[in-house]
């Protein structure tokens, strides 16, 4: 209990004032936890407010269209979270009459809810004594207890979950879980942690062994893949363009984009014209093709870097159904395309 008492005391003195800490409503906690997966609070907070305003209850979220949800999520990344969020809201609203499951095991059955999220909801909303383990918890425990087992290995996941469970304050798991995550976020930070004022500095093995920077240990990620995107931005008569919706299991599933030709390297105009997909879109010679950005926009994702060029196509004929350029920003699009549109549609350019 010494660890727990020290930690909770620190938390009560230093915790941030966050909206989801003022409620035990499962919908609010679930929404915040899904949004904060792989996302900093500073980035996720504005989205949380937007969602709560647009969808005050799980029923409101369930009744929204997929495009509406994806548009509101735009810019937050990891879009599978938004799709799972929407699917789960419909399940809770329609199959469970709006009532979220109230145990760790039953929460795990919800789409998009894993060990961490189920533990957080169960402990915060229902006071169930289950320990959360996220990036902050891994860092705190690995340093204080000098654990060098890789956190993204099967053995590491099991070891840290076991230790977090052992340390958990069983009488007040909600406060304990929030405290250890907050401590990792604010005090035991990845870079430049506040070791001199740390309440655990007399117990921290990493501080004693000067291994703060080496912990936690993480197995190397897979090699980053480079991809080369060429978007065809049609600017047709009557201010129309062409949008397509992405599908499949790749990135940005469900979002909209301009017709895309992916190449193995950066290519020029003549090379682009040789692609079958380009020929399918543009028949004959009655068009003009202009490169919008000579230097590719480099968009970095977790396991891939996208080198993107936008090609402006002026033509009198539309090979597919068109949408008004003025309406394009109403569609949910990747940030990469959203940034391009903001520039392209600006008064300065047009």
UniProtKB/TrEMBL annotation:
<dbReference type="GO" id="GO:0000701">
    <property type="term" value="F:purine-specific mismatch base pair DNA N-glycosylase activity"/>
</dbReference>
<dbReference type="GO" id="GO:0034039">
    <property type="term" value="F:8-oxo-7,8-dihydroguanine DNA N-glycosylase activity"/>
</dbReference>
<keyword id="KW-0227">DNA damage</keyword>
<dbReference type="InterPro" id="IPR023170">
    <property type="entry name" value="HhH_base_excis_C"/>
</dbReference>
<dbReference type="InterPro" id="IPR029119">
    <property type="entry name" value="MutY_C"/>
</dbReference>
<dbReference type="GO" id="GO:0006298">
    <property type="term" value="P:mismatch repair"/>
</dbReference>
<comment type="function">
    <text>Adenine glycosylase active on G-A mispairs. MutY also corrects error-prone DNA synthesis past GO lesions which are due to the oxidatively damaged form of guanine: 7,8-dihydro-8-oxoguanine (8-oxo-dGTP).</text>
</comment>
<feature type="domain" description="HhH-GPD">
    <location>
        <begin position="35"/>
        <end position="186"/>
    </location>
</feature>
<comment type="similarity">
    <text>Belongs to the Nth/MutY family.</text>
</comment>
<keyword id="KW-0234">DNA repair</keyword>
<dbReference type="Pfam" id="PF00633">
    <property type="entry name" value="HHH"/>
</dbReference>
<dbReference type="Pfam" id="PF00730">
    <property type="entry name" value="HhH-GPD"/>
</dbReference>
<protein>
    <recommendedName>
        <fullName>Adenine DNA glycosylase</fullName>
        <ecNumber>3.2.2.31</ecNumber>
    </recommendedName>
</protein>
<dbReference type="Pfam" id="PF14815">
    <property type="entry name" value="NUDIX_4"/>
</dbReference>
<dbReference type="GO" id="GO:0006284">
    <property type="term" value="P:base-excision repair"/>
</dbReference>
<keyword id="KW-0004">4Fe-4S</keyword>
<keyword id="KW-0378">Hydrolase</keyword>
<keyword id="KW-0411">Iron-sulfur</keyword>
<dbReference type="InterPro" id="IPR015797">
    <property type="entry name" value="NUDIX_hydrolase-like_dom_sf"/>
</dbReference>
<dbReference type="InterPro" id="IPR000445">
    <property type="entry name" value="HhH_motif"/>
</dbReference>
<dbReference type="GO" id="GO:0046872">
    <property type="term" value="F:metal ion binding"/>
</dbReference>
<dbReference type="InterPro" id="IPR044298">
    <property type="entry name" value="MIG/MutY"/>
</dbReference>
<dbReference type="InterPro" id="IPR011257">
    <property type="entry name" value="DNA_glycosylase"/>
</dbReference>
<keyword id="KW-0479">Metal-binding</keyword>
<keyword id="KW-0408">Iron</keyword>
<dbReference type="InterPro" id="IPR005760">
    <property type="entry name" value="A/G_AdeGlyc_MutY"/>
</dbReference>
<keyword id="KW-0326">Glycosidase</keyword>
<dbReference type="GO" id="GO:0051539">
    <property type="term" value="F:4 iron, 4 sulfur cluster binding"/>
</dbReference>
<dbReference type="GO" id="GO:0032357">
    <property type="term" value="F:oxidized purine DNA binding"/>
</dbReference>
<dbReference type="InterPro" id="IPR003265">
    <property type="entry name" value="HhH-GPD_domain"/>
</dbReference>
<dbReference type="GO" id="GO:0035485">
    <property type="term" value="F:adenine/guanine mispair binding"/>
</dbReference>
């Amino acid at each position: 209990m010494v660890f727990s008492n020290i930690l909770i005391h620190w938390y009560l003195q230093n915790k941030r004032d966050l909206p989801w800490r003022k409620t035990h409503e499962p919908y609010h906690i679930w929404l915040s936890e899904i949004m904060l997966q792989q996302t900093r609070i500073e980035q996720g907070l504005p989205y949380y407010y937007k969602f709560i305003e647009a969808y005050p209850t799980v029923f409101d979220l369930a009744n929204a269209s997929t495009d509406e949800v994806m548009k509101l999520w735009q810019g937050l990344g990891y879009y599978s979270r938004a799709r799972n969020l929407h699917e789960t809201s419909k399940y809770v609203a329609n199959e469970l009459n709006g009532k979220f499951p109230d145990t760790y095991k039953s929460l795990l059955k919800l789409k998009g809810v894993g060990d961490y999220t189920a533990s957080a909801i169960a402990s915060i909303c229902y006071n169930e004594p289950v320990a959360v383990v996220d990036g902050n918890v891994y860092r705190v425990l690995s340093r204080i207890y000098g654990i060098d087992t890789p956190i993204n290995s099967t053995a590491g996941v099991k070891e840290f979950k076991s230790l977090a469970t052992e340390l958990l304050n069983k009488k007040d798991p909600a406060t304990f879980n929030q405290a250890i995550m907050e401590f990792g976020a604010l005090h035991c930070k990845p870079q430049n942690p506040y070791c001199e004022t740390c309440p655990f500095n007399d117990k921290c093995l990493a501080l004693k062994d000067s291994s703060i920077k080496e912990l936690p240990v993480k197995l190397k990620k897979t090699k980053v893949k480079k991809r080369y995107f060429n978007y065809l931005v049609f600017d047709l008569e009557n201010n129309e363009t062409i949008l397509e919706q992405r599908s499949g299991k790749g990135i940005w599933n469900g979002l909209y984009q301009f017709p895309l030709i992916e190449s193995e390297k950066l290519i020029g105009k003549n090379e682009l014209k040789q692609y079958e997909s380009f020929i399918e879109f543009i028949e004959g010679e009655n068009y003009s093709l202009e490169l919008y950005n000579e230097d590719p926009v480099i968009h970095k994702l977790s396991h891939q870097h996208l080198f993107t060029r936008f090609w402006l196509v002026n033509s009198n004929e539309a090979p597919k159904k068109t949408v008004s350029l003025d309406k394009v920003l109403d569609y949910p699009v990747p940030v990469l395309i959203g940034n391009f549109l903001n520039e392209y549609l600006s008064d300065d350019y047009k």
